[in-house]
Amino acid sequence: MNKIVYSFWTAPLQKRWAKHKKDHDLEDILQSSINCLYLSVLYAKKWGFEVEIVTDLESVNYFQDLPVDHLSTDLTFLDYNRTWTKGKIFAIAKQTRPFIHMDWDVILKKKEVVHQIRQCTSDVIVQSIDTLVFEDHLAKSNDITFEDVKNIKWLVDFKPHAVEEIIRTYDAVCNTGIVGFNDMKLKDSYVSNYLKCLEVSDTTTWVDSSRVIDQYSLYCSVKANNSSVEQILPDKDTIQERANAIGYTHFAHISKYTRTIQDKIINKINEEFPQYGYLVNSKRPIKNLIKLSLCTVVMNRFDHLVATLENNVKVARQFRGQVDVNVLDYNSTDGLEDYLFDQDWFVQGIKDGLLYYYKNTTAKYYHRTLPKNAIHNLAKGEYLINVDADNYVGPSFLTYCITVAENEKNFFLRPTLPSAKGSLGRIMVHHNDFKKLGGYNLKISNYGYEDTEFSLRLRKLGIRKIDTPPHLCQDTIDHGDHERIANEKPRTKIRFEDALEDSDYENKMMDFELYPNTNQSADIDLYKIDHTKKRNKVYDTSTHTLDRAI
């Protein structure tokens, strides 16, 4: 076995700690975990192993400077419910030749353990085979009890699919802090059994089955296939002595997050691998982060905006200043402003500079492009993202946008038909490109075609379209077509019975112009409202700099 695979899935780290250890700083937890992986990978490369890291878009940038052979983001779109070992299984599932998977807090410090791994000819190698603890009060934090296994078996028995290997009851589990396979069919059996049990873990709230189905299902597969097993630490009575002798370290659950252990990890990296010391030292250069601005226009869509905006602000806050939210209330008369300023999350968002709220008080009818251009021009982000009032924005979508922006140039993002129903207007464009084109076509005042027309002009300008994965944009509020045009100016000329079809048709019949706004007035009466409800007159909606209090 000459290949080591790591899986680093950010979502479980953030969500498990946020739920169970609220007194800990999540940023410190994430960085401490990453430091462990740094040291583990650097030792693995020192011993000449081929190394693969399977991670997600949220954390991939941390690992790009490591001397790894393969780095992928295959864990980005995994759904995290409670099963935190799922990322490991997906990383294991993709392997096609003998390998070992190591937890990122496992360190191979000496040649003795390296030699044992490389010379292993057994079907599978694991950290150890651990006996189940039959008395719950005797169990330590990482022990699996007989009661744990019994609960999982009971739940699995009531599922529609059978997991034959788990029918029998065994009194042991495989500790998979390190787990490797020479027998790839056994690996497939292990993955298959895990996935069959996955529904249990993801839908059960009264038992944390994540580690149980991982370690017990492997032991069951080993027994069912009469497979040979090699253990790194075979004798539990001398486990610490053996680990020290061969140079095998697996940090205990909480110890790796203590200042003492983190200082040792950082010192070891600086001593053993000084060329990578900048990864963990406080003087590590800070990356110039790309800034995104979410831009939303609303007119009398109270029910939609109060639902989506709170979510979108909460998600934007997770990105620590890299994403802001901009809302233009186009003279809504449904009580939206009063309601929002009664919400703590809304007022705090404005106070923190996370949320910007603009208000027009003169519009009689909704204009499809005029307020949209205003809010895009006022936004401060390097990239602008149009977000309709009925659209929920998720962290995976924003992470994808940031990652594309970091790796691509001269592009815009837009979802594709037909899977992006309700979010086709979610266009991300560079601020300079938006300015260069003059924004959306001001000649389009009623429903239809303004997003596609804008996309066509971007492409004519030489800006490349990248399709946003549709599943990142599907969380929208479903509603009837009448709400799309309820606030628009009534039309006098009707060709079709369907008002939306008629309006869309008329807009499509316009002559194409690359710069249709050259002689169009973009004036709009607008106020910027701060967290104290003080109104500031905006004197120029083509820039975000000109406003003053009235």
UniProtKB/TrEMBL annotation:
Stretches assigned to the Galactosyltransferase C-terminal domain: 425-464
Coiled-coil zones: none
Membrane-spanning residues: none
Pfam families: DUF6734, Glyco_transf_7C
Keywords assigned by UniProt, alphabetized: Transferase
Domain DUF6734 residues, every copy: 3-276
Domain of life according to the entry: Bacteria
Entries under Gene3D superfamilies matching the protein: Spore Coat Polysaccharide Biosynthesis Protein SpsA, Chain A (3.90.550.10)
Protein name according to UniProt: DUF6734 family protein
Source organism (scientific name): Aquimarina celericrescens
